[in-house]
């Protein structure tokens, strides 16, 4: 949090999920010396950045977030140009449900130059006959599906192309030294850094006690939950990506759905409750699907997608790390940058998160909403 810093020497980035990989890519592309430390493997299945299906969308009721999605989309296009392949498949996005404030979402997008179309239920059913909607539907064209695993692999590869090193090791401690930070690793031992970037995802609450008290005491409450994800078969494979758009349904729970990509054999779509996770930790999660969540999702599929076989052919769990406001944390204290772009909606922002972390490393003032307490 201080002024601009003249940083020389290695920057150690802890965590090779979407946030850490993006930070390593952006920093290495600036010519900085970067060491990316990952305990297991980039985008491993135990974290929050694995698999081939994460939602990209502009549809938020707050222009603050819409503006960030617009900036992030530029970053996704930049990554695709760098690697010569697609990371984001555009499907369009739908928002609907009895508790969804569609006028606020449309207004927020319009304020940021993002167009949308409000459709009456009959018109929506004619355009997307698999959906039995009974209320208005807000559609915008630029939403889609991010291949998270390909994105992480690509950003790590781009970072390495620019000279970054990848170390597979576990962090024992992060300490402030007189000339930077010391990151102590389980196998490699102490590693001197001009700046340490802690982007450990769901492991951040467990790493926090190993951070200097001046940092750990300023973290907001971070709640880790085990989320339930279900895969259902397409009634028939969509002919075009836009025939099966991503959607957000706001009813008793907020439910999201998107084509499943390669996940679970790539034979259908995934659907899950955003706001009904079970408290856990990254180290103690049991991976057992909550039967109550399954029952609610199956009931919604029966009502909303009547042509779909309402028996999930696959199910799994993943992790959220959430702040009380669902805002992110990207801030710097001395030689340590904390990055927790989380709360179940951070994946879409990954390239921009890399930019924001790089700015924090350079000593730029953080976005006020992303400050530590």
Give the tally of structural domains.
Answer: 2
CATH topology of the largest domain: D-Amino Acid Oxidase, Chain A, domain 2
Distance between the termini: 11 Å
CATH class membership of the largest domain: Alpha Beta
Instruction: Give start-end ranges of low-pLDDT stretches.
Output: 1-7
InterPro entries: FAD-dep_OxRdtase (IPR006076), FAD/NAD-bd_sf (IPR036188), MTOX (IPR045170)
Domain FAD dependent oxidoreductase: 11-359
Keywords: FAD, Flavoprotein, Oxidoreductase
Pfam family, one: DAO
Note the topology.
Layout: E1 11-14, H1 18-29, E2 34-38, E3 54-56, H2 63-83, E4 88-90, E5 93-96, H3 102-111, E6 117-119, H4 121-127, E7 137-140, E8 144-146, H5 148-161, E9 165-168, E10 171-177, E11 180-185, E12 189-193, E13 195-198, H6 204-207, H7 213-216, E14 223-233, E15 246-250, E16 254-259, E17 268-273, E18 278-279, H8 291-304, E19 314-322, E20 329-333, E21 336-340, H9 350-361
Parallel strand pairs: 1-2, 1-13, 2-9, 5-15, 13-21
Antiparallel strand pairs: 3-8, 4-8, 5-7, 6-7, 10-11, 11-12, 14-17, 14-18, 14-19, 15-16, 16-17, 20-21
Helix pairs in contact: 1-5, 1-9, 2-3, 2-9
Organism: Amnibacterium setariae
InterPro entries: FAD-dep_OxRdtase (IPR006076), FAD/NAD-bd_sf (IPR036188), MTOX (IPR045170)
Protein name: FAD-dependent oxidoreductase
